[in-house]
Amino acid sequence: MDLNLDEVEKICADLYLRALQLLPPDIKAGFSELQRTETDATGQAILGTMVENIKVAERTRNILCQDTGIPIYNITIGRNVTFDGAGLKEAVRRGAARSTRENSLRSSVVHPITRKNDQNSCGIRVPVIHIDFDDREETVSIEMIPKGSGSENGSFLKMLLPSDGITAVKRFVVDRVIELGGRVCPPTIVGVGIGGTSDLCMHLAKIAATRPLRMACEDAEGAKIEAELSRAVNELGIGPQGLGGRSTSFAVHVEVAATHITQNPVAVNIQCHSARRARATLTPGGIAFS
Predict the structure, then answer these.
(1) Which residue from 249, 279, 223 is spatially nearest to 25, judged by alpha carbons?
(2) Which residues contact 67 (CB under 8 A, 6 or more apart)?
(3) Which of 114, 141, 275, 285 is the most buried (most CB within 10 A)?
(4) In terms of Cα–Cα distance, which of 102, 99, 103, 97 is closest to 117?
(5) What SS3 class is residue 28?
(6) Alpha carbon distances (Å) from 5 to 13, 80, 87, 157
(7) Strand 264-271 vs strand 188-195: parallel, antiparallel, or unpaired?
(8) Cα distance between residue 208 and residue 215, in whole Å
(9) Radius of gyration for the chain, computed over Cα atoms and rounded to the nearest angstrom
(10) b/e per residue, 152-169, with b = 16+ CB within 10 A?
(11) In the CATH scheme, what is the code of domain 149-271?
């Protein structure tokens, strides 16, 4: 399959708007579950307002949150797909800029020193583009995640020592959730990276934070920790928007990687209640959005 870069540009533009307007089904189901289990009256009221906001945004074709985020595109390429790598990255960039321009989206991307905003959601090394490969035949998937500042500011890394043990890892995660309180627009998805190097550990936390709900960590030990932490953070009493209740988080997600014998890194990356993402899968038979 030859990857059509003009088609990629259009898909990337469409995905940006879809992600901003349509909350994924698993997150809607997560809200329903929290509404079922929340016992605090204020928490129930806040959850109800959030759910109504989602319905209004979809009914009026408006965006779920004014923060259009830093655009992130995760691209996975299967076997027997031919493409121009540099051209692919440029097509993604054009798509993000095109969607911002054509849909009059707020550009949230600025130069880190001058704070200049080019009003196209693009800048140095932005959009963030991750390219990976798998064994699916003639298949390309493009996932778009607009990562807002409120949740992205809930990012932490600590290089623990092996002697600190896994208890220190769990304590670090819970302490960060307490520290953030309502500033990350809970209920959240708490992404946790364990292992790797410092940069890989942070990347794992981002993968975990943007993973669909009800998908357990593939590593058995990681899955046990995320179940323990999911229970723990919802016993903190922070609640939706930090106003009290049990609905602090949809879930804690953990991703792991092998690490050095003298390291024990842990990272946290938060995703807010507006856990937006959209995906397109390209095959010779056409394009499917999800």
Answers:
(1) 279
(2) 106, 108, 146, 148, 149, 150
(3) 275
(4) 97
(5) helix
(6) 12, 16, 7, 37
(7) antiparallel
(8) 10
(9) 19
(10) bebbbbbebeeeeeeebb
(11) 3.30.1330
Predicted local confidence at residue 248, as pLDDT: 98
pLDDT digits (tens, 9 = 90+) for 59-114: 999 999 999 999 999 999 999 999 999 999 999 999 999 999 999 999 999 999 99
- Neighbouring CB atoms inside 10 A of 22's CB total 19
Secondary structure (DSSP) of 259-276: --TT-EEEEEEEE-SS--
Q: Which helix (H) or strand (E) holds 1?
A: none
pLDDT category at 15 given cuts 50, 70, 90 is: very high
Pairing label, strands 286-289, 128-137: unpaired
Tell the residue number behind the tokens 């357990």, with chain if given.
216
- Residue 269: closest CA among 164, 193, 218: 193
Provide the strand spans (E) within the chain.
Answer: 70-79, 128-137, 140-147, 155-160, 188-195, 249-257, 264-271, 278-283, 286-289
Whether residue 184 contacts residue 270, with contact meaning beta carbons closer than 8 Å, is answered with yes
Flag whether the pTM goes above 0.90: yes
**Residue 204, pLDDT score:** 98
Judged by DSSP in three states, 96 sits in helix
Residues 183 and 241 sit within 8 Å (Cβ to Cβ):
no
Query: What residues does each domain of the chain span?
Result: 5-19+64-148+276-289, 149-271
Q: Cα(38)–Cα(241) distance, rounded to whole angstroms? A: 14
Residue with tokens 């993968």: 207
